[in-house]
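The instructor's notes for this session suggest beginning with a concrete chain rather than abstract definitions. Hand out the sequence below and ask the class to guess, before any prediction is shown, which regions might be ordered.
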Amino acid sequence: MNTQADAKRRLLEADDERCRALLAHDLDALDRILTDDVVYTHSSASVDTKEAFLRSMREGRLRYLAAQRKSADIRLYGQVAVMHGHVIMQVEVHGNKKDLNNLFQSVWIEREGRWQMASWASTVIPPETKTL
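After discussion, reveal the predicted structure:
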């Protein structure tokens, strides 16, 4: 039986797999995890399609060096889930390292028993913000 707790556990596992793929530069895994029509909104406000996102990684313009999800709240709506949380990342964009302390929101769709990310959006938490 597929309980809500089980669905949330599997979703967190899928997001962990996504983070591992980002750090390992595993574009094949990312290709499976992201829906074909994913909308990927970076904290810089640039928006990528799946093709553009994977290409920026393949060409070395974007590298994920570290990523740690600090918190995540998941809301399930049938086979759609919305995850909102806090993530700390280190990325390299065009050769420049950036430390990011972000809030994020992602939308996931369960297809054939597997979660895929359909949307990602993150925003930088201003340094003067003390609590979330």
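Then share the key points. The helical segments are 4-24, 27-33, 50-58. The mean pLDDT is 94.
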